[in-house]
Amino acid sequence: MSAVTTPSKAPRSANVMPETPGWARWANDHRKWLFAAPAMAFVIALIIFPLAWTLYLSLTDSRGSVRAESNFIGLQNYFDVLADTDRFWPAVGRTAAFTGVALLFEVVLGMAIALLLWRPFKGEKWVRVAILLPLVATPVAVGMMWRLIFDPNIGMANQILGWVGIGPQPWLAGQSSALPTTIFIDIWQWTPMVVLILLAGLTSLSDEPQEAAMIDGASAWQRFRHVTLPLLMPTVIVAVLLRGIDALKTFDILYATKGRGGGSFNEVETLNVYAYGLSFDYNEYGRSSTVLILFFLIIIGVMWALTARRKKEAARR
Amino acid sequence: MKKRTGYTIFRVVALVLVVLSLVAPLLWMVAASFKTNVDIYDSSKALVFTPTLGNYDTVFQQANYLQFVFNSLWVAFAATVLSLLLGVPAAYSMSRFNMKKSALVVLMARVIPGVSLLVPWYYVFSNLQMVGGFGVLILSHMFVSLPLIVYIMMGYFDGLPEELEEAALVDGLTHIGAFRRITLPLSVPGIATAGILSFIFSWNNFMFALVLSGANTKTLPVAIFDFVGYASIDWGGLMAATTVVTLPIMIIALFVQKYIVSGLTAGATKG
């Protein structure tokens, strides 16, 4: 860099670069961590510390304010929460129902739509745009939009039911219909995600197995069931994994449609909504941290099971 | 070929139904944003009504939405740029040196429930007097953007042949020089994909801003709730607000469709 140094006459080789200053050579040798460390440090600082703290809080009776004095009470919170059939277990049930039902519909519908889109056709571009729209829309706004459509008095949903002679439904306002309605909203918004992933998987399949099956006289259903589906299985599992993690953690549309605590009767209170309420509405930090740790373990467990399944599927090929 | 035409008809009908069910609710939302509240309550005015800009007037004049639009833009932009600066080199290293465990640490950020981070963050950042400011919002949104960018860019770098860099090394470039002059320019499509998705995810993020933003720094998804009262809802204003939030993203999506699709499906088809 400095102009004073005499230019080296030595022949250049790949490894000896005379005009490279020392710091650049150091950087070059340590590029692996020089590149990776800042991002890692950021994530670790923002995750590991909060996670460790959440773990610690879950062992205390902290409430009211995190600054307030709190006592170490061991696993008491865990016993309390696991024995709580009033809020905790119903929330676990709702989380499981929400995720399970939404995923089932999203995968089945997503597969059907992906198959419809698979082979090229005229106007394909516009259909693809339509599929992208719900996906990029702000979830809170989507929740509000459906809140108007599902309004029992002025909503379009009941009006359409009226045309076909079905009486008005309470939708989001009903105690038993609220959760299914939010599941419907999730399906509307996120089926397109599954479509895109499965379509990418379908497009990457080679045509030969299909053609071979066709020559053997297999029907369309047989070709799907015994050729396409097995080949696509790893992609299906990825879609389930990506969607599943987000579905378990659904918060935005539940908060937008039912407000705090998942509605006045906690109709749509999933684990995430419950934990949020404990932290920011009731300031029960100890208990909320316990719920969060348990919730986190559930998520990790589901992910682990699906990843193991995917490895098995991939190994079978 | 009779069967063929049968399928074609079925396919067209099915696709029309799919498109309608995805687009109609959005059109309904946009339509309601141009109606007076009286017309929204009147089912005979469902499709035929006199459009009014009154709701948008409420949104921008009374509810001060320009400020929130700016907040959302600024937070999403800053979080995306900073995450790209941190994430692209990290993804490069993780891809080239096969740092699976390190990648897993970054991707953990995607899996952890946000609430478990918010309590400690709130405590720390309120001690630093940062809650309600842009700094903490941008930091929290980077937490959404960074894992996404690392994930997409790792897939992208995995697909770039290493031979290109090796050729550059033979020509006398350092490793970092090869990254800067060869790999980065070749990665522009990948970076665009990652950047666009990061922007959208940050724009749409709700929970972090709900807890960490202040009255003057709140982003659009939080500001929407201004139209939801305890007793009643200003439906017209609410629908205008939701349209203001969603429409820009949808218009962007129209133009950069390919990037969004490749980003969302990144890594999904790998064995």
UniProtKB/TrEMBL annotation, chain B:
The chain crosses the membrane at residues 12-34, 73-92, 104-124, 130-154, 190-215, 235-256. SUPFAM superfamilies: MetI-like (SSF161098). Residues 69-256 form the ABC transmembrane type-1 domain. One of its GO terms (cellular component) is plasma membrane. It is a multi-pass membrane protein. GO terms for biological process: transmembrane transport. Pfam families: BPD_transp_1. This is Sugar ABC transporter permease. The lineage of its organism: Bacteria, Bacillati, Actinomycetota, Actinomycetes, Micromonosporales.
